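Retro notes, item 3 of 5
We never archived the inputs for the adenosine-5'-diphosphate complex last cycle. Fixing that now. Sequence and ligand:
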Amino acid sequence: MYNSILVPIDISEDDLTHMVIPYVQAHAALNTSKVHFLTVIPSLPYYSALGLAYAAEMTKLEEFQRTALSKLDEIVKQFHIPAEKIHTYAVPGSPKDQILKLAEMINADLIIIASHKPHISTYLLGSNAGAVVRHAKCPVLVIR
Ligand code: ADP
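Structure as it came back at the time:
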């Protein structure tokens, strides 16, 4: 039923990942050809712009990407989806922008995203989930 499902994963938020597992499994079981898992690494210029002391140490973006990707691969095992259906990606940038960009690239027909409970500062949704819901060109399933 789905050609392409996109599941953005914040590798530092195990609770959010656990929330989406049963929903991803249920949708992936519906003749889905591919499930794309994406983790986004906040970009280095962001840290440099803030002048953070450790910015100089954060030069090895490729190494970060490799580490993030292997962590994502570990996380994805918990979903128990056949390996041939899975694609994983680790890219630098802003989570919401990269989620929307990959959704277009893979022609996603569903995005499954977890959201924190509403924060008073952002009202209905967190900033990433909110932006994805507002701007995605395909259905978005928000788990909370
Ligand atoms: P927040 O309240 O922290 O802004 P949201 O509730 O808007 O978070 O969205 C959380 C969801 O956004 C996560 O479950 C995940 O799907 C996605 N997300 C957040 N950060 C990243 C990231 N670095 N890489 C991939 N996905 C992310």
